[in-house]
């Protein structure tokens, strides 16, 4: 928002967090002199209604938004407090990090991502317009939904997958070091979000337990069937083994069919990018230099993955770019002395 010329005042119940965010360029931690255009509450879900109610009672803003990962609960809490909710919209940017706090923040986090808005019949048009302006400043894609429909949808695409990721990662806790050191990109993809703050996720799941439990019981049924199929594959009987193979194929094929439905950036169909792989030393500033060199060559990096080599101070950076930009980027990085890999 600061980059787009908006004046941002930061407040946090831990003033150090607001100071750090201000020092990073996210705004000022000085209080505004009077009511602001819009107050955006990004506290943990269980505190959202309380923080919003306090701001509304003080008349802190013309419009009030929150960005909590659940939408039905906070709205009902606000209604129970008897507040006039015409000036409020519950929102949820569908993008985040597994790390907390201002040091984990990035200015382009929401670019091209869906940002859910849950206005009701009573929402002031002026406030809806402020919310749309905010989403547009962050270059996100607005999606209007009913609060409860949102909660059912994120149970499927965010909350249940989060728990499954935690359960896969939990298998590693007491695993032998010899096995853990073999971790490749597959398990990194599946477990990244398991690094998130449990306190935040207890709040999120506590506000959406029913839909998540329903989905997890469907996953449990798939797990039971898959275990049965794997046991059948161990059988000495040919027919049993064939049955086992069919069962495994079924779950893998259904996985393919679901995976192709995951949209790429901007909510469109997934795009085919080409990957340019660079070997880096594990030292501060390396990624920033690669990005600067790519920028100088006029190449937009669409996505990036980093794979650290076990036991070495080196890593492989996979830069995903539009196919026509791959050759330009390869040449520019080679010219600047980067070691490229296939
Ligand atoms: N991290 C994500 O992936 C993500 C994505 C979309 C939405 N959200 C939602 O955004 C909100 C913030 O999540 P985050 O990941 O930025 O967490 P965070 O821990 O980085 O930030 C939360 C901040 O709220 C402050 N806080 C706690 N209680 C407060 C209170 N009562 N009053 C004022 N400040 C208070 C904390 O000090 C902290 O600085 C949550 O509601 C979360 O559901 C998170
Ligand atoms: O990718 C991450 O690290 C996230 O935290 C992302 C994610 C998600 O599940 O998509 C997690 C919770 C938020 O409510 C929104 C986004």
From TrEMBL:
Gene Ontology biological process terms in this record: tyrosine biosynthetic process
Enzyme class: oxidoreductase
SUPFAM superfamilies recorded: 6-phosphogluconate dehydrogenase C-terminal domain-like, ACT-like, NAD(P)-binding Rossmann-fold domains
Domain of life per record: Bacteria
GO molecular function: NAD+ binding; prephenate dehydrogenase (NAD+) activity; prephenate dehydrogenase (NADP+) activity
UniProt pathway: Amino-acid biosynthesis; L-tyrosine biosynthesis; (4-hydroxyphenyl)pyruvate from prephenate (NAD(+) route): step 1/1
Keyword Amino-acid biosynthesis: yes
The protein's Enzyme Commission number: 1.3.1.12
Domain ACT: 275-342
Domain Prephenate/arogenate dehydrogenase: 1-264
Keyword list, A-Z: Amino-acid biosynthesis, Aromatic amino acid biosynthesis, NAD, Oxidoreductase, Signal, Tyrosine biosynthesis
Reactions listed under catalytic activity: prephenate + NAD(+) = 3-(4-hydroxyphenyl)pyruvate + CO2 + NADH
PANTHER family to which the protein is assigned, alphabetical: PREPHENATE DEHYDROGENASE (PTHR21363), PREPHENATE DEHYDROGENASE [NADP(+)] (PTHR21363:SF0)
Name of protein: Prephenate dehydrogenase
């Amino acid at each position: 928002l600061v980059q787009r010329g908006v004046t941002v005042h930061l407040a946090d119940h831990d003033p150090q967090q607001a100071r750090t965010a201000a020092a990073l360029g996210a705004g000022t931690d000085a209080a505004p002199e009077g009511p602001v255009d819009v107050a955006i509450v990004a506290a943990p879900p269980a505190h959202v209604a309380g923080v919003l109610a306090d701001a509304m009672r003080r008349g802190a803003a013309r419009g009030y938004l929150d960005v909590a990962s659940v939408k039905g609960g906070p709205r009902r809490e606000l209604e129970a407090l008897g507040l006039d909710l015409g000036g409020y919209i519950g929102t949820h940017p569908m993008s985040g990090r597994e790390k907390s706090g201002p040091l984990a923040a990035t200015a382009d986090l929401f670019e091209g991502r869906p940002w859910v808005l849950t206005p009701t019949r009573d929402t002031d048009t002026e406030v809806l317009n402020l919310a749309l302006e905010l989403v547009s400043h962050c270059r996100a894609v607005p999606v209007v939904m009913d609060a409860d429909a949102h909660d059912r949808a994120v149970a499927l695409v965010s909350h249940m997958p989060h728990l499954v990721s935690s359960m896969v990662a939990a298998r590693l806790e007491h695993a032998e070091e010899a096995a853990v050191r073999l971790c490749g990109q597959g398990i990194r993809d599946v477990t990244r979000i398991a690094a998130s703050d449990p306190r935040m996720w207890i709040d999120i799941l506590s506000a959406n337990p029913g839909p998540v439990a329903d989905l997890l019981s469907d996953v449990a049924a798939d797990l039971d069937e898959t275990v049965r199929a794997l046991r059948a594959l161990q059988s000495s009987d040919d027919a049993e083994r064939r049955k086992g193979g069919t069962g495994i194929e079924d779950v893998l094929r259904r996985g393919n069919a679901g995976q192709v439905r995951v949209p790429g950036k901007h909510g469109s169909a997934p795009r085919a990018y080409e990957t340019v792989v660079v070997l880096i030393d594990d030292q501060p500033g390396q990624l920033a230099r690669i990005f600067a060199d790519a920028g100088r060559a006029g190449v937009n990096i669409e996505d990036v993955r980093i794979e650290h080599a076990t036991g070495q101070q080196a890593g492989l950076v996979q830069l995903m770019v539009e196919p026509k930009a791959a050759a330009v980027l390869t040449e520019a990085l080679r010219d600047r002395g980067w070691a490229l890999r296939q």
